[in-house]
C-alpha cells in the first residue's frame, strides 16, 4: 500500500510568483487536508477537500487555493508569493472527513526569496 | 475554537530516563486529542490518540498519555527514552477525529547519551 506522497520535495520561488504543490492520497482515502508549518511552529490548517468539494478552510488569504481531483489527489496553489509563505507544506489524507485518521505526507519545503 | 499549549518548548533528558511532555488544551466543546512525532525533514507520524473510553492511552514506541478532563490536559510520557526518540513532538486536538487538527507549538525532545 502506497502512503501519502507529495511533490516536489523542495522548491525555491521569488516573491510575487505563483506555486503549485501536489499531493497523492493514500489508496482508499477520499479526503485531503493541507497544513502550513512555518519554521519552529506547529502546523496550521489551510483547508480540507472531501470528494472533490472544499470541506472547511482555515485563516488563510484567498491567494491560497486548491482543488481535489476525481482520483482524490490534490493541489495547493499559492499566488503572489510573500516571504512569509516560506514553510513546510504538509498534506494529510484520510478515509473519511469526519472520523478517518489523518496520514501525513513528508511535506514540500517552499522557500520564497 | 480550540487552542493547544505545549508547556515546554525544549526537553533535554538522558538516555533511559523517564520523560513527560506537557500539553494543555482549551475548547468549548468535546474534542479528540492526539500526539504526533516529527523526525527531522519528515512529515508527522501519529503516536497515539484519545477518542473516548479509558483515559490512559497507549501508543507506539512505548509512549502513553493520560487525558485529564478537569485539568484539560493530555500529557505524554515514556518510562525510559532512547536516543532514537529525539524528535519534535506535537499535541493536537480536533472536534472529530477526521476534521481539522489544531496543533500546539511543539516540544523538542533531545535524548543525550
Can you offer a commentary on this structure?
The complex is a heterodimer of chains A (113) and B (113). By secondary structure, chain A is mostly beta strands. Chain A is built from no helices and eleven strands. The N and C termini of chain A lie far apart (37 Å). The mean pLDDT of chain A is 94. Helix content of chain B is 0%, strand content 53%. The interface between A and B is medium-sized, with 29 and 22 residues.
Features:
heterodimer, A: 113 residues, mainly beta, seven-stranded mixed sheet, four-stranded antiparallel sheet, 11 strands, B: 113 residues, 0% helix
| Biggest sheet overview of chain B | 6 strands, mixed
Extract low-pLDDT stretches of chain B.
none
- Protein structure class of chain A: mainly beta
* Fraction of residues in helix of chain B: under 10%
Helix content of chain A: under 10%
Distance between the termini of chain B: 41 Å
Low-confidence runs of chain A (pLDDT<50, min 5 residues)? none
State the helix count of chain B.
0
Described by strand count, sense and barrel closure, the largest sheet of chain A is: 7 strands, mixed
Rounded to an integer in angstroms, the radius of gyration calculated over CA atoms of chain B is 13 Å
List the helices and strands of chain A in order: EEEEEEEEEEE
Mean pLDDT of chain B: 94
Topology:
The complex is a heterodimer of chains A (113) and B (113).
Chain A lengths: L4 E3 L2 E4 L5 E6 L6 E7 L6 E7 L2 E5 L6 E5 L5 E5 L8 E8 L8 E2 L3 E5 L1
Parallel strand pairs in A: 2-11
Antiparallel strand pairs in A: 1-3, 3-8, 4-5, 4-9, 5-6, 7-8, 9-10, 9-11
Chain B lengths: L2 E4 L3 E5 L4 E3 L1 E4 L5 E7 L5 E7 L5 E3 L5 E5 L4 E6 L8 E8 L7 E2 L3 E6 L1
Parallel strand pairs in B: 2-12
Antiparallel strand pairs in B: 1-4, 3-9, 5-6, 5-10, 7-8, 8-9, 10-11, 10-12
Amino acid at each position: 500500500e502506497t502512503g501519502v506522497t507529495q511533490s516536489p520535495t523542495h522548491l525555491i520561488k521569488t516573491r510575487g510568483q505563483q506555486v503549485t504543490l501536489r499531493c497523492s492520497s493514500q489508496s482508499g482515502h477520499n479526503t485531503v487536508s493541507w497544513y502550513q508549518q512555518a519554521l519552529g511552529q506547529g502546523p496550521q490548517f489551510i483547508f480540507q477537500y472531501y470528494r472533490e468539494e472544499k470541506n472547511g478552510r482555515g485563516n488563510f488569504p484567498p491567494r491560497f487555493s486548491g482543488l481535489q481531483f476525481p482520483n482524490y489527489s490534490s493541489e495547493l496553489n499559492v499566488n503572489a508569493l510573500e516571504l512569509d509563505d516560506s514553510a513546510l507544506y504538509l498534506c494529510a489524507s484520510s478515509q473519511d472527513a469526519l472520523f478517518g485518521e489523518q496520514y501525513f505526507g513528508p511535506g514540500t519545503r517552499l522557500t520564497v526569496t | 475554537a480550540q487552542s493547544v499549549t505545549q508547556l515546554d518548548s525544549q526537553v533535554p533528558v538522558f538516555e533511559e530516563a523517564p520523560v513527560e511532555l506537557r500539553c494543555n488544551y482549551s475548547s468549548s466543546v468535546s474534542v479528540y486529542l492526539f500526539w504526533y512525532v516529527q523526525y527531522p525533514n519528515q512529515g508527522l507520524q501519529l503516536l497515539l490518540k484519545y477518542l473516548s473510553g479509558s483515559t490512559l492511552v497507549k501508543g507506539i514506541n512505548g509512549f502513553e498519555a493520560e487525558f485529564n478532563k478537569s485539568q484539560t490536559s493530555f500529557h505524554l510520557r515514556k518510562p525510559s527514552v532512547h536516543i532514537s526518540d529525539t524528535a519534535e513532538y506535537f499535541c493536537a486536538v480536533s472536534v472529530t477525529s477526521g476534521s481539522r487538527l489544531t496543533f500546539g507549538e511543539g516540544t523538542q525532545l533531545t535524548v543525550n547519551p
